[in-house]
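User: My instructor asked us to take a sequence, write out its structure as tokens, and then describe one feature of it. I'm not sure where to start. Here is the sequence I was given:
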Amino acid sequence: MKIVGSCRPIHDARGKAAGYTKYAGDFALPGMAYLVLVRSTIPHGHVKAVHAEKALALPGVYGVFHCFNTPQNTFNRYRSRFSQELPDEERAFTDYVRFVGDRVAAVAAESQELAERAARLVEIEYEELPYSIGFDDTLSGQNCLPGESPIRDDFTADVGRPAGDGSLIEVESFTELPRLHHAAMEPHTCIADYDPYQEQLTLYSPNQAIHGIRVVVARYLEMPFHKVRVIKATMGGSFGAKQEWLTEPVAALVAKLLGRPVKLVYSRAEAMTGAVIRGAVRAHVQGKFTPEGEIASLSLDVILDAGAYVGNSADYIRTLFGKLFRCYKVPHAHYHGQVISSNTPVSGAFRGWSAPEEALIVERHMDAAAQALGIDRVELRRRNALLPGSSDLKTGVPLEDIRIREALDRGQELFHWNELCREDAAFNASNGRYRRGVGVGCGGHGSTYFPRHDDFGEGWIFMNEDGTVQLKITTHDHGCGTVTMLKMVVAEVLDISDEDIYLTEGDTANTPIDFGCFASRTTFVLGRTAVETARALKQTLLERAALLFDQPLEQLYVENGAVRCQGSPDLSWTYAEIAGQSMLKLKRNVSAQAQFNNVTNPGVTGAHFAHVEVDTWTGFTKILDYLAVQDIGQPINPTMCIAQIQGAAQMGCGAALREELVVQKDGRCTSSLSKYHLFLAPDLPNIRVELLTDGRSSEGPFGAKSIGEVCYVPTAPAVCGAVNDALGSQLGTLPFTPDRILKHLAKEGTK
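Assistant: Let's start with the prediction itself. The structure tokens for your sequence are:
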């Protein structure tokens, strides 16, 4: 291959490096109003009155919109497809507030500064209600209205057959995970432009599903779909935060009411408290193992705190169970999942869509089992790793050439696992302050929605008169190289330079209907769609050349941007010649269209290894070494794959050791990065990455599998396992902050 497998920068790298690239927040339209939200200052209650007189008295304020002067229509922030059966829970502005930060009103003004000033003048009267912020007070029904239950969803499932052998060894573990902020560099943003004469609404939004937004906004405003246009703007990161619709319905409503463009940009505090978070999870696992270390049965009891609105939580809690069968052989599993609703920020999508939570829960249990059985932690995982040819026990879908055991073997070798274990034991025995440990984490994911529902993609492609190509696929690039990837696979098929292909991101008026960037489907589904679209164009080129130049079709082939004839080296026609002659002589453009519907979901996995040093005097943990081994199939753009994995390791270290969105007793939560402690690049060692490329997929483009989400799944488990190894502990409540470590050491010291 000439293009696929080579290293390319992302399509807008130069513009971003130079500060030239424009984000939605940089745009300004003529006559645009700036929108600032007025949010609830109490965690639970009813709005009794909104006093906006002072704000409206300021010159340049266009209006104050609130729960009493806007429509009662509702929407669901999670909807991404027209066919989803979801409750419409939210209004743009609510009179029943459920958390500190709920939307009550908005001020529209001629400048951002004026809108912020006016918003501070809006006064809200509340009738306060009892509230809850944690698992125990929510489960007790502290925040329930009459007739309500604290349990908003309850799900039980069994897969496989339980083992009845009396020789099995029982293992128990407990894990509790905190709320997390996505920490994307760009906050949530939307520009809505309504043309009252054409009755046309246009939205500019950095998001993960333009057609999902169109469904939500069109239904919410009771508009036909073709009258709502959504344009994917350049995105400054998402990690799942921008796949739920928060700014778009609000900006669209106000733009339509005002009849002028509206811009809504969240502050960092709003992005942390008023958008979506990764919800808190509490899990109890009971497992049964053979004396040789093979899993016989796992029983999981998991509670997810959805926060103020249920949103995606019912789906999330069910999906977590499915991830259990993407890495290990689990002959039987019992699962009980519950969703509760507290008066805290809303739980939403987060990178990996429940797989990181599943991995933390299960990997924590595997470490406990290894200790109970007296088996090395890597070896225990090897004995339970799924092998090539295995199938997903829950869905029955073949996992194809899955390579998790190979990832473990390769990682154990490259990380010098056995040597480090011996060296750390000697170091810890001779050091009074510092303790070292190693950890391993495994995790699996998917590459598509299938088989939960059928997945598909569509592409359109056109050739210009000079032989360059225009490709139309509904693309959502998070800044990770999706546009470049699609251009590369098309260039490979057509045997041209990827620089000769033009591709923009999604636009509901100009690109095909698509589900969006979810379930790690972009490379696997849309990448293959691009391949099929390019193949269709190549076939058209060959057919046109045969017709134009009177040559046998079966003897024609493409090479270096030209059509050539077998056995006749002197016969060659450039793509430009064929396109031009087709237009002039045949009166037809050179174009093609293709759709692809996948019917597989291959196993994609990773094994990560971490080496840490814990300062027992301060509680601080230092990452000494980190290795990620990923089963990826054919990497389309290896540089971008490695960058994804390294970024995931940084996120995972933060989740393991520092990050926690803390909710105070009054319902307020962390609202500044000064108090939300991210792992920064200088805090990390060189993140080593090993790509396993032999286990290729049957349907992905050139054998590719996904990488964007699965690389985050094993990260925190590896680091947490290393800390527990260093301390000889079984800590299960994340993050492992200095305070938690010191409390553990103090408790151990009193025994």
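For the description part of your assignment, you could build on this observation: The first strand starts at residue 33 and ends at 39. Try explaining in your own words what that tells you about the chain.
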